[in-house]
Amino acid sequence: MNLDRVINVALYAKRRGNTGPLSTGEALTAALVLDRHDWLKEMDYTIAQALDRIDQDTIQHLADAARSVAEGVDHD
């Protein structure tokens, strides 16, 4: 996923309060960006397993996406 997609996935999940109909990779990405360990636990993933499950292109954007979401940047 590119940075905009990572941000949008995280914002979508944040607005819903859950990962809803997101794919597994998207849900894991949102949980990592939003620091939602409870979501990872519900999906039966550890942080390490989540990082192993998502692709490298997505991993490289996690920190930037977390900053953008924390700052309230919306890419819709």
What are its keywords?
single chain; mainly alpha; 6 helices; globular
Describe this structure in words.
- There is one protein chain.
- With 76 residues, the chain is an all-alpha fold.
- The chain has one domain (3-70).
- Helices cover 66% and strands 0% of the residues.
- It contains six helices and no strands.
- Helix 1 (3-16) crosses helix 2 (24-33).
- The protein is globular and about 30 Å long.
- The two termini are 15 Å apart.
Can you give the helix content as a percent range?
Answer: 55-70%
Rg (CA only): 11 Å
Per DSSP E runs of 2 or more residues, the count of β-strands stands at 0
> How would you describe the shape?
globular
Total helical elements: 6
Strand content: under 5%
The mean pLDDT is 94
The stretches of 5 or more residues where confidence is low (pLDDT under 50) are none
Q: Structural class, please? A: mainly alpha
Q: How would a textbook summarize the main sheet?
A: none
Order of helices and strands: HHHHHH
Q: End-to-end span in angstroms?
A: 15 Å
Number of domains: 1
Short description:
This protein has 76 residues and is mostly helical. The protein has helices at residues 3-16, 24-33, 37-42, 47-53, 56-59, 62-70.
Topology record:
Layout: H1 3-16, H2 24-33, H3 37-42, H4 47-53, H5 56-59, H6 62-70
Helix pairs in contact: 1-2, 1-6, 2-4
